[in-house]
């Protein structure tokens, strides 16, 4: 069974939390449902910025222990080559797994779209 070692952060990139799981999407959903589990609501962990897929449980546990001991600078050096803009990787995971991805803000909501009217003289 495959395991994932991941790094998740808050919107201000103030905290970097390392974790390990078997189902990454389920774990991220849990973080969303329990926003104050590790920190207060202002520091909600909701942005997946890095993950590794590892084949065996022993290798995953060794890698998790190794990454957990890293300093912040070492974790940032891991993240930057694969995710230089620190974007949330959850959307890509949902797309790959076939889950429905949230549409854009203006799609299907005509009340928000700016109205364009023809000007006649």
Outline the structure in words.
It comes from Mucilaginibacter pedocola. Residues 1-77 form the GIY-YIG domain. InterPro entries: GIY-YIG_endonuc, GIY-YIG_endonuc_sf. This is Nuclease. With 121 residues, the protein is of the alpha+beta class. It has a single domain, classed as GIY-YIG endonuclease, CATH 3.40.1440. The chain contains 4 helices and 3 strands; from the N terminus they run ββαβααα. The chain has helices at residues 24-33, 57-68, 72-82, 90-97; strands at 3-9, 16-21, 47-54. Strands 2-1-3 form a 3-stranded antiparallel β-sheet, with helices on both faces. Strand 1 (3-9) and strand 2 form a beta hairpin. Mean pLDDT is 80; it is low at 103-115.
CATH topology value: GIY-YIG endonuclease
Q: What fraction, in percent, of the residue positions are helical?
A: 25-40%
Share in β-strands: 15-25%
CATH architecture: 3-Layer(aba) Sandwich
Described by the principal axes of the CA atoms, the overall outline is globular
- Poorly predicted ranges: 103-115
Assembly of the depicted chains: single chain
Protein name: Nuclease
Domain GIY-YIG: 1-77
Organism: Mucilaginibacter pedocola
InterPro entries: GIY-YIG_endonuc (IPR000305), GIY-YIG_endonuc_sf (IPR035901)
Draw up the topology in text.
Elements: E1 3-9, E2 16-21, H1 24-33, E3 47-54, H2 57-68, H3 72-82, H4 90-97
Antiparallel strand pairs: 1-2, 1-3
Brief synopsis:
By secondary structure, the protein is an alpha+beta fold.
């Amino acid at each position: 069974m495959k395991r994932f070692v991941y790094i998740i952060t808050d919107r201000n990139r103030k905290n970097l939390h390392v974790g390990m799981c078997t189902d990454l999407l389920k774990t991220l959903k849990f973080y969303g449902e329990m926003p104050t589990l590790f920190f207060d609501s202002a520091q909600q962990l909701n942005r997946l910025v890095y993950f590794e897929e590892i084949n065996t449980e022993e290798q995953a546990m060794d890698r998790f222990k190794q990454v957990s001991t890293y300093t912040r600078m070492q974790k940032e050096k891991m993240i930057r080559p694969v995710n230089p803009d620190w974007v949330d990787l959850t959307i890509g995971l949902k797309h790959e797994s076939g889950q429905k991805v949230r549409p854009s803000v203006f799609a299907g909501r005509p009340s928000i779209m700016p109205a364009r009217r023809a000007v006649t003289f």
